[in-house]
Amino acid sequence: MVAQAVELPKGYRLEWSGQYEYMQRAAERLVWVVPLTLFIIFVLLYMNFESIAETLIVLVSVPFSLIGAVWLLWYLEYNLSVAVWVGIIALAGVATETGVIMIVYLDEYYEKYKAQGKLTSPAALRQAVLDGAVQRVRPKMMTVTATIAALLPIMWGTGPGSDVMKRMAAPMVGGMVSSTILTLLVIPVLYAGWRGFQHRKDFRLAAIESTDSTPLQEDSTDAS
After folding, report:
1. What is the pTM of this model?
2. Is 224's pLDDT higher than 60?
3. pLDDT higher than threshold 70 for residue 105
4. Nearest to residue 97, comparing CAs of 169, 37, 40, 41?
5. Which of 1-15, 114-128, 199-213 has the lowest mean pLDDT?
6. How far is 147 from 119, CA to CA, in rounded Å?
7. What is the mean pLDDT of residues 209-221?
8. Residue 74: its pLDDT value, please?
9. Quick one: average pLDDT of 124-144?
10. Do the Cβ atoms of 166 and 154 come closer than 8 Å?
11. pLDDT category, 199, cuts 50, 70, 90?
12. Are 130 and 156 in contact (CB under 8 A)?
């Protein structure tokens, strides 16, 4: 509209400044800061688990946490800004941390069932995953409750700088809510599917052996 309504004399030009110019500079940095952050998280997760599959399963919690963040930003009518992106980056770290704890519990019960020789069927694997996921509910709820309780005063603040702090806290509050629900439901399912794919041959052999052993027991009974 300015270009159509304003005729500039020769030798003059228009440049937009203020918040627009600041946002342009910040956007140029965020183009490589956000992917770099995700890459660092991926490397740290791989160094911890030494498994690409488990690393990717943990990273699934990041987009799930963004669902709640986007919804709350939309509800509060906040535009994307540098403060919002800082909150999203912080949310990615917290969501990854909670996902790591879930995988640790699932691995613990998986190894426990495996050492006891109980992993003989998909039902046994599901039970192991269920036992591990149930143990994760209380730590997850404690983490989410403490995080949200610490951020709510920032969301309700009205002092100097509160506009910026609110936009940093909003993605984390919304993201923690959706991450709580979806991480507890989705990560165990993905973990069970991955482990089931690993043991598909073992489950088939166990099913064949159990089927073959049944007629043998009947024959021995008849013979006696």
Report:
1. 0.72
2. no
3. yes
4. 41
5. 199-213
6. 37
7. 54
8. 92
9. 85
10. yes
11. confident
12. no
- The token pair at 121 is 């069927």
Burial class (CB in 10 A: 0-12, 13-18, 19+), 210: exposed
d(CA 50, CA 47): 5
Residue 96 to residue 179: CA distance in whole angstroms: 10
Contact 178, 71 (CB under 8 A): yes
- DSSP-assigned letter for residue 159: S
Domains and their CATH numbers in the chain: 52-205 (1.20.1640.10)
Residue 117 corresponds to which tokens in the numbers above?
A: 């020789």
Question: Containing H/E element for 39?
Answer: helix 19-49
Q: Taking the C-alpha atoms of 175, 178, 183 and 184 in order, what is their torsion angle to the nearest 10 degrees?
A: 140
- CA 168 to the chain's CA centroid: 19
**How many other C-beta atoms are found inside a 10 Å radius of the C-beta of residue 105?**
20
CA 141 to chain centre: 15
> The tokens of 120 are what?
């003989």
Number of other residues whose CB lies within 10 A of the CB of residue 13: 5
